[in-house]
Amino acid sequence: MRLVIGGREFDFDRRVAVMAIVNRTPDSFHDRGRTFALAHALEAVRTAAEQGADWIDIGGVPFAPGPEVTVAEELERVLPVVEAARELTVVSVDTYRPEVAREAIACGAGVINDTSGLRDPAMADAVAGTDAALVITHSLAAPRTPHPSPRYDDVVAEVRSFLQQRVSVALDRGVRPDQVVLDPGPDLNKNTVQSLELTRRLDEICELGHPTLAAVSNKDFIGETLDRPQPDRLAGTLAAVVFCVLRGARIVRVHDVRATVEAVRMTEAMLGWRSPAYLRHNL
């Protein structure tokens, strides 16, 4: 599966793309505003690129409920970071607003990461006719909307069906199949047991035939499984990342770039996809 995304070629038969997270939000669930200031966001972009990130995902509005952020505010947060990152790596913008997507693509974003799962079909219109990739994510509720106690008869079957339906919407509106990336959305309107089941059966999502993104970094299903607070979930995150790769994920979205790049590259080498950086031992 060779795809050109953001002007760069990715061979997803033999490589995994590491997507770094840079949020220009004061209330992001993990970094709690650490990169909200523009200078801190730009420094995070440079650091992520130096540490080997293949993509950088820039967000201006969290998924979780919180204060209203206008379209103008979101653009003001996101576009300067897109401009700074576009020469360094593939740039993704995490947004559910078609108007933000259009501006981001015009500014140089190569990926639109829609956590709403095309709740507004106009998002597909914004991407159609461009070279940008579109990440379609599963959730039950719209972003910024609480959804306590989510219920599923079979979480994997229902997530898979939702994603199939939303892909059909995208294709009907002119998005090419090679532009589509799928994210089953662990933790998004799912409890820990449901997220673990979804991760365990991730191969059933990958069978849909589009690159699958695993957005597992520091999520609550890891914290509740291991009884670890937000700042202490790296080991669990790396285990989840490697497990998802073995189940078929080809993009992993993470906060801790260097550790994840090394875990992913080691996994690729053990699978026979990547040669060692050098050979010296016992030669």
- Low-pLDDT parts are none
How many E-type strands?
A: 10
Structural class: alpha/beta
CATH architecture: Alpha-Beta Barrel
Q: Give the amount of beta strand, in percent.
A: 15-25%
Q: Level of helix content?
A: 25-40%
Order of helices and strands: EEEHEHEHEHEHEHHEHHEH
Total number of distinct structural domains: 1
Mean pLDDT: 94
Output the radius of gyration: 18 Å
Summarize the structure.
By secondary structure, this protein is α/β, with parallel strands linked by helices.
Structural account:
The protein is of the alpha/beta class and 283 residues long. The protein is built from ten helices and ten strands. The longest helix has 18 residues, at 155-172. It starts with a strand and ends in a 13-residue tail after the last helix.
List the helices and strands and how they pair.
Blueprint: E1 2-5, E2 8-11, E3 17-23, H1 38-50, E4 55-59, H2 71-85, E5 90-94, H3 98-107, E6 111-114, H4 122-127, E7 133-137, H5 155-172, E8 180-183, H6 192-200, H7 202-206, E9 213-214, H8 220-226, H9 234-247, E10 251-254, H10 257-270
Parallel strand pairs: 3-4, 3-10, 4-5, 5-6, 6-7, 7-8, 9-10
Antiparallel strand pairs: 1-2
Helix pairs in contact: 1-2, 2-3, 6-8, 9-10
